[in-house]
Amino acid sequence: MALTMGRMIGYTVGHMTIDAIVAGAGIWGCTVARRLADAGRRVLVLERRAAVGGNVRCEVDAETGIEVHLYGSHIFHTHVPEVWSFVNRFVQFNGYQHKVLASYRGRMYFLPFGLALINKFFGVELRPDEVAGFLADETRSKAVFDAFFRGYTSKQWGLQPEDVDESVIRRVPVRSSYDVNYYNDYNQGIPLTGYNSLFERLLDSPDISVLCNAAVRLEGGAFKVGGDVLPNVPVYYSGPLDELFGFKFGALPWRTLRFESERLGVRDFQGTAVVNYTEAEVPFTRIHEFKHYHPENAEVMSRPKTIVMREYPSAWKQGDEPYYPVDCAASRELFARYRGEAEAVPNLVVGGRLGGYRYLDMDKSVEAALKLELLP
Ligand code: UDP
Question: Which amino acids are annotated catalytic?
Answer without folding.
Answer: 171, 175, 255, 286, 311, 359, 361
